[in-house]
Amino acid sequence: MEVHISDDEKLFLISGVEQDIRNDGRTCADFRTIVLERGVLSGTNGSCRVQLGQTTDVLAGIKLELESFDPAAEKEAKQPMSFHVDFSANASSQFAGKGGDQYGEEISAAFQVAFSRSLDILPNLSKTLLAEGYRWKINVDLSVLQWAGSVPDACSLAIIGALSDLEVPEVEVAPDDGGKVSIVLKRPRTGGNMRDEEVPVAMWKLDVQSCPMLLTVSKIGSANLVDCSPEEECCIRSQLLIGVAKNLNVDDYDITCIKQHGGGLLEMESIQDMTELASKTAGGLYQAIEKRLKTEEKRKPGHSFLL
Amino acid sequence: MSIISEHGFRMDGRRPAQIRNINTRLGLNRNAEGSCYLEHGNTKVLCAVYGPYESKASKRLEDRCAIVCQYSTTTFSGLERKNRPRGDRKSTEISRLLEKAFESVILTESFPRSQIDIFCEVIQGDGSNLAACVNATSLALADAGIPMKGIASAATCGIVETKPIVDLTSREETDLLPRVTLATICGRDEVILVELQNRLHIDHLSVVMDAAKATCADVYECLAVVAQQHLKACAPILGN
């Protein structure tokens, strides 16, 4: 969706945000209403759908894969997550064909950077490393179904939702012939008259309370904004993609990624201000997510989420 | 495991001639002229229609409007993860099939020198993806108010030991099972799309085609109800 607004409208918008009032009544540090639903796709290991302000709509699905790698080739353990953002043509006809690929790759790359130290950040992510040379690969795929600004923000919320929904099978690793290992799914016997392959596999979940998130902070006029609407995105001077992760040890926030997006000029001091705004916003978001993940009712698998 | 059990049921508990539940929602995409979310059981499809708008010079036709379709599947839609959501041979083929089918449904002469974009996204694929896309597209076009000869409906049918089974799931879409996807207008004898996969004995062809035609008529009944209900719900907005 391309937005065309006149110079006078832009002026109105810019002078508004400089006085901390946006066109939809929010202040500069406010997010739009967030809708977060988990467990929406039965065909995935974990899924989540996030809507921002009823118009930006992102769907995240995680597929696990048992990956073998060469431990000698990696100096230090590589983090097991890989991200892929796809802009569906449904969101806007400008994304048809290869139209959304460039922006999608840009966001995917930023997520890859923001999550590059996730083995240190997420407390139990190292459990995905099963044995020397084997690990669970976590493929996080995002599909942007509707677009109305702030796609990276919606994506990072969907990633956190999907990671918290993700169930990883417990496995038993036993040494095998020729220095290899055999990996078998763990099925704890609870009694009852069942065949071995009918016993459900034990699962474990990731601890996502410190999961990194990627926020966009935009400079409009002299003000810094989060969660921009499409009209506001027309007026952006410069935009930063800032990765923030909660530090569980000192109760503060770490910056995991800073990327300037879409050109423009920035002063050094502005970058400082913008990262501060990002970590402040992240604090609110972490609280809201934690509350939502606790209170969300468990849906039955395969319910219709877009109805 | 056999596809039809000895008691005459399929793996998901359906009878051979029974379709899965169809759930729909129209008009959920605010940016598009028309949109539809459709479920055939676990197959979930999202379709958006943009246009008609003035087409680019490369696609412009002087006497009618150009139909541009794009079929893509999310990378997590199938059993195995895919690397690319679109652009592979199968997606391109399905896009072209949809394009040709809807060129003969839409009254293209009403919009010379314009273009209509149809975008289908399979969010979760559990068999009969092409049929689900045709059904979703028909409803999205109806939602966009684009004049058509009628509502198109489609179904995928297979044949197991001379018995036809309809609305296949991905577990039933095996390499050996012959399957036909048929689309008709208003459940009548007007075929707009037919596609056969795998090898089928010629004696079985009429059996499968009859089953497919009957299923298309069944699906049409469902789609017509949805379209009418949506129109009723919109009546206060339209002012009558």
UniProtKB/TrEMBL annotation, chain A:
Domain of life: Eukaryota
Domain Exoribonuclease phosphorolytic: 30-169, 214-280
GO MF annotations, alphabetized: mRNA 3'-UTR AU-rich region binding
CDD domains in the record: RNase_PH_RRP42
Swiss-Prot/TrEMBL keywords: Cytoplasm, Exosome
GO biological process: exonucleolytic trimming to generate mature 3'-end of 5.8S rRNA from tricistronic rRNA transcript (SSU-rRNA, 5.8S rRNA, LSU-rRNA); nuclear mRNA surveillance; nuclear polyadenylation-dependent rRNA catabolic process; rRNA catabolic process; TRAMP-dependent tRNA surveillance pathway; U1 snRNA 3'-end processing; U4 snRNA 3'-end processing; U5 snRNA 3'-end processing
Location(s) in or outside the cell: Cytoplasm; Nucleus, Nucleolus
Gene Ontology terms: cellular component: cytoplasmic exosome (RNase complex); nuclear exosome (RNase complex); nucleolus
Cytoplasm among keywords: yes
Family, similarity comment: Belongs to the RNase PH family.
Name listed for the protein in its UniProt record: Ribosomal RNA-processing protein 42
